[in-house]
Structure formats: structure tokens, C-alpha cells
Design goal:
The complex is a heterodimer of chains A (177) and B (230).
Chain A lengths: L7 H44 L6 E3 L11 E7 L3 E8 L8 E7 L5 E8 L20 H6 L7 H21 L6
Antiparallel strand pairs in A: 1-2, 2-3, 3-4, 4-5
Chain B lengths: L1 H8 L14 H7 L3 H24 L9 H23 L1 H7 L1 H4 L5 H11 L4 H31 L1 E2 L2 E2 L14 H18 L27 H10 L1
Helix pairs in contact in B: 1-8, 3-4, 3-7, 3-8, 4-5, 4-7, 7-8, 8-9
Classes of the chains: A alpha+beta (177), B mainly alpha (230).
Chain lengths: 177, 230
């Protein structure tokens, strides 16, 4: 029976290759990460304009209240009365975060919604699916059916929206569920 | 002459998709539109050229026992690099390719060429092989995408073709249509390359990546062959 012959040379070679590749990626990341951050920032700004088309002023809420769900990345107050919540759901099934920007009134009604990044099935309908939530409150959004064929994505989407309702409730002086 | 042959082998005679039938998953997924196909082909080609060259450069340093993990680390490194560059400088294309960009790591063409070619040839030949195979992959993707987009969606690279609008065959943009076009193109290439394409070798231990670890005495196919021989 042939047994694998592992020796010090094998370990050194594999470790060295891993270190070199890591160093190469670190250098690339050093140069690309500011550009990527800028692109993402611009994308968020564009999504705010898509969600609240008549936006004339925006202020970021800092710091976010205690109990803010982890998926809530940023909250803006638009035109002094509307909340825009930027969400990113990290799901084990996905190769990347699902990014959502949702505009909510102080009463907790969805005014506009946009899926900013999504790496899974094209069947999800990234432009059409989110629109069915416009005009709904927390209870209404919870009642929307998940989408067969992209069940995980639609469940993650619904859960993220509930997080947006939670943070707006906290900002309006309520308590998280 | 030998170098030209290496470069042109991947185009038709040993086309990785239509003759060797490797990298089928991204081919079927990304051939719905010509733009996606070109982007996927170029990304895979870049990884193929770089990984082939580096693996060839390191072929005498990498011990046989850890060569597959080493190849995977090198390939994954280049894929991540391409991903970072694409997200930074071509964000729209990055989003369009989605999960399939990361999946280049497990593209059989890349690991296959590393194992079959790059670890036996010099850097220049390996890079040329990467270029030829990458070009062959892109060509196959674009050919498939052209048929699927033009006939299935009445458009080419996103531009509408008015006179075909009423004669669309929507199934071609769906997965079954992808298989249909794939099969037709394989048949066409088989017809063109009659007798010139490489014949499938027998599935013996030679060339198997696990040969050095293999418990040959307990291998069912080996036992079967030995019994038949007796």
C-alpha cells in the first residue's frame, strides 16, 4: 500500500506559497479597498435617491441606538422626517451580502425600497420583488409570502426589513420587539 | 511552430468546453448574454494565463504530494485578485458576473490545465496554453451566448434586433435551451474536427491526481481488471 510521503519540504512549500499569495492579496487590497469603499458609498447615495426621489437633505444618525440589529449598517434622516435604513444581510448560503436600502416614515410605513446588491439567483426579480413591500407596515411586510425557488433569499429579505422596522421604532422612542 | 500549435490547440481541436467538456457550469450559466460571456471568458482567461505561468515556474519546487493544494492556493489567489480589481474598477461587470466569478476557483479547465500541462512545460509554453485555452473558452461562451441571446431574446450584446422581436424562442434563454445549444455546438465541433480531436484515453491510474495516495491493491477497478486478466 502506498502511503503519502509528507515531509518538511512539503510543509515549507505549501506554507511559503500561502504566505506569498496572502502578501500579494494584501498589497492588492491596500490599493483597491479605498476605491471599492468609494464605489459602495456612491451606490448607497444613489439608492437613497432612488428610495426617496425628492430628497433635499440627509443626515446620518450617529451613534445608532442600543439594540440596533446587526444587519442595520447605516440610518439616515431624509428631509428631516423620513428614515432611510441601509441594510446588509450576511447569509451562510450566499457568496456576498444582500444589500437593501429602505425608506420608512416615522410611523413605520415603507415609502421606497431598493435591492442594492444581490449575488444569488436571477429568478429573484431584484427590481420587481422588493416593490410589493412599498406601502406596508411591519405586520404587512411580515405577511408577504416567501418566493418559491428563492426561499432563502426572500426569507433573508423579509428578516432584514423587520430589522429596519426595529431600528426606526427604537429611534422613535419605542422598544425593540 | 510548436508554440503556435500550443496556442491554437485550445481554439477548436482541444477546445476546453466543446471538445474536452470542461467548465460546463459557468458556460451554461453565463451564456445568456454576450456581454456576460465575454466578461466571464476574459476573467477566466486572465486567471488561466497567470496560474499556468506561476504553476509552471514553481513545478520543480512544489513536492508531488502537496501539488494539488498548492495549485488551488495559487488559483484561488488569482481569482481573488481578479475579483478585487473587478469590484474596484469594473463594478457593474462584477455585479453582473455575481457568484460565477468566485466559482472560477473550481473551474475544471484551470485545475485541469495546471495538472495536465503547466506542471510538465516551461513558463512560456504554459502561458501560451493558458492564452489559447482561455481564448477557446471565451470563444465557446460567445458562440453559445450569441445563439441564445439573438434567437432567445432578439438582441445582441444588449442591443435590440427589431425584426426578430416576433420570432423569439424564449426557451433558449432558460437552462433547457442552454443544454440544447450546448449539445448542438458540441455536435458541430465534432463534425468539423472529425478524427482530429484527441481520443479519450482509458481511465487507468496514469495521470490520476491521486495516484501517489491511491490504495491500488484495494481499488475496485484494479481488482476487476486483474480478475479479467486471469
Amino acid at each position: 500500500m502506498n502511503k503519502p510521503k509528507f515531509n518538511v519540504k512539503s510543509i515549507i512549500a505549501l506554507t511559503a506559497i500561502c504566505l506569498i499569495v496572502t502578501a500579494l492579496l494584501a498589497v492588492t487590497n491596500h490599493f483597491t479597498s479605498p476605491v471599492i469603499a468609494e464605489t459602495r458609498e456612491k451606490k448607497v447615495e444613489d439608492s437613497l435617491r432612488a428610495v426617496i426621489p425628492d430628497m433635499y437633505s440627509m443626515r446620518e444618525v450617529k451613534p445608532l441606538p442600543d439594540g440596533t440589529p446587526a444587519s442595520v449598517k447605516k440610518v439616515y434622516v431624509i428631509n428631516g422626517e423620513i428614515y432611510a435604513v441601509v441594510l446588509a444581510t450576511t447569509s451562510a448560503y450566499s457568496s456576498g451580502d444582500m444589500g437593501i436600502t429602505v425608506g420608512l416614515s416615522g410611523e413605520g410605513e415603507i415609502l421606497g425600497i431598493k435591492l442594492t446588491s444581490y449575488f444569488e439567483s436571477k429568478d429573484f426579480g431584484r427590481e420587481t420583488y422588493p416593490q410589493q413591500y412599498v406601502g406596508l407596515d411591519a405586520a404587512g411586510a411580515e405577511a408577504v409570502d416567501v418566493f418559491a425557488g428563492v426561499t432563502y433569499s426572500s426569507k433573508a429579505f423579509k428578516a432584514a426589513l423587520q430589522d429596519a422596522f426595529t431600528v426606526v421604532k427604537l429611534l422613535e422612542g419605542g422598544e425593540a420587539n | 511552430m510548436k508554440k503556435l500549435k500550443i496556442l491554437t490547440n485550445g481554439l477548436l481541436k482541444e477546445n476546453p468546453v466543446l471538445v474536452l467538456v470542461l467548465g460546463t457550469c459557468p458556460t451554461l450559466a453565463m451564456s445568456v448574454s454576450v456581454i456576460n460571456a465575454v466578461a466571464m471568458g476574459l476573467a477566466a482567461m486572465a486567471v488561466l494565463i497567470c496560474s499556468n505561468a506561476v504553476i509552471s515556474l514553481l513545478r520543480k519546487i512544489i513536492p508531488d504530494t502537496v501539488r494539488i493544494p498548492c495549485y488551488i492556493v495559487v488559483i484561488a489567489g488569482f481569482v481573488t485578485l481578479v475579483q478585487m480589481l473587478m469590484e474596484a474598477y469594473l463594478p457593474d461587470l462584477y455585479e453582473m458576473l455575481g457568484v460565477y466569478l468566485a466559482l472560477i476557483v473550481v473551474n475544471c479547465i484551470i485545475l485541469g490545465r495546471a495538472e495536465m500541462f503547466a506542471n510538465k512545460h516551461n513558463v512560456l509554453e504554459s502561458a501560451l496554453d493558458g492564452l489559447g485555452m482561455g481564448f477557446g473558452f471565451t470563444l465557446a461562451l460567445v458562440a453559445m451566448a450569441t445563439v441564445r441571446e439573438v434567437l432567445g431574446n432578439a438582441s445582441f450584446a444588449g442591443m435590440k434586433i427589431g425584426f426578430l422581436e416576433n420570432y423569439r424562442i424564449p426557451i433558449l434563454t432558460a437552462p433547457p435551451g442552454g443544454f440544447l445549444v450546448f449539445g448542438c455546438l458540441i455536435a458541430l465541433v465534432a463534425y468539423i474536427t472529425r478524427g482530429k480531436a484527441p481520443q479519450r484515453k482509458s481511465f487507468d491510474c496514469e495521470g490520476c491526481p491521486s495516484a501517489s495516495f491511491c490504495r491500488k491493491d484495494q481499488c475496485p477497478s484494479n481488482i476487476e481488471t486483474e480478475t479479467e486478466a486471469k
